[in-house]
Specification:
Radius of gyration: 14 Å
Strand order of the largest sheet: 3-2-4-1-5-6-7
Distance between the termini: 20 Å
Largest sheet: 7 strands, mixed
Number of strands: 7
Helix content: 25-40%
Number of helices: 5
Length: 171
């Protein structure tokens, strides 16, 4: 793997009348956020060849929007929907990332806070990110935020940017 994209699902509706929290759909704003992040990733030249997405409806819908923004099919053969990522902690997410290292060049993992936020922060610390970058991420990981990392041959991640929910690239 050469690139890792960690993303929190986009803004979701407050509740779901059927299916509880797992079935919360994206709001209209969330759908726009997901597309904007996909467009920003495309502008950077990102080309995920593996997507691992939580089984929750809002993360699946986030992927659909990101894929649209990237100009990709919404359900490629390399899309993996993982029930175990629903509200997973950082260690569980890390295991999924590490398990994908030999299977792709560019991985996008879409999951939930606090796990995705904590994993992004942990990878920044591991990669020796500057205090300014650490402070930016420490303050929060809003819905539809994506943290980008370059991955070296030894599997070490270094900071390559943050894309905000409006598609702003803070590389």
């Amino acid at each position: 793997m050469r690139q890792l994209i960690l993303m929190r699902h986009a803004q979701a509706q407050g509740s779901s009348p059927v299916g509880g929290d797992r079935e919360r759909a994206l709001s209209a704003a969330g759908r726009a956020q997901a597309i904007a992040v996909g467009e920003a990733l495309r502008a950077r030249g990102a080309a995920p060849d593996l997507a691992i997405v939580s089984g929750a409806r809002r993360t699946r819908e986030t992927w659909t929007g990101v894929a649209e923004g990237l100009g990709l099919e919404p359900e490629p053969a390399w899309l993996e929907v993982e029930a175990a990522l629903y509200n997973a902690d950082a260690m569980t997410l890390r295991r999924h990332v590490e398990g994908a290292e030999e299977r792709c060049q560019s991985l996008i993992l879409i999951a939930h806070n606090p796990g995705v936020h904590q994993l992004a922060f942990d990878l920044l610390i591991d990669g020796g990110a500057s205090g300014q970058i650490l402070d930016r991420v420490r303050l929060g990981f809003a819905p539809a935020t994506a943290a980008l990392f370059l991955v070296d041959a030894a599997g070490r991640c270094t900071y390559d940017g943050i894309i905000q929910p409006d598609g702003t690239d803070q590389g």
